[in-house]
Write a structure and sequence with these properties.
It is built from 1 helix and no strands. The protein is an all-alpha fold. The protein is elongated, with a radius of gyration of 24 Å. It starts with 6 loop residues before the first helix and ends in a 56-residue tail after the last helix. The mean pLDDT is 77.
């Protein structure tokens, strides 16, 4: 009885796995992104990974750049691009 040649299939599977592992960093996105696309930020931990933040607040507090009435309850901002 003749054995089926599975070496070609195994090699193809190995290449597919290797290609998908190599492509993940390219498709992952920007780790240092300033966008907050969901509640409490990209990682939902409320921590900004921006490099250009002030080391301390001014005595008068930060400058207000926008204001929105959201009503009572729990809320959090989501930012992406110019929205």
């Amino acid at each position: 009885m003749k054995r089926a040649n599975t070496t070609g299939r195994q090699l193809l599977l190995l290449w597919a796995i290797l290609a998908s592992l190599c492509a993940q960093p390219l498709l992952a996105g920007d780790e240092d992104s300033d966008t907050w696309p969901q509640y409490r930020g990209k990682y939902r931990d409320g921590i900004s990974h921006s490099k250009d933040l002030l080391p301390s607040w001014p005595a008068e507090g930060p400058r207000e750049v926008w204001r929105v009435a959201v009503g009572p309850g729990f809320s959090g901002i989501s930012l992406s691009g110019d929205r």
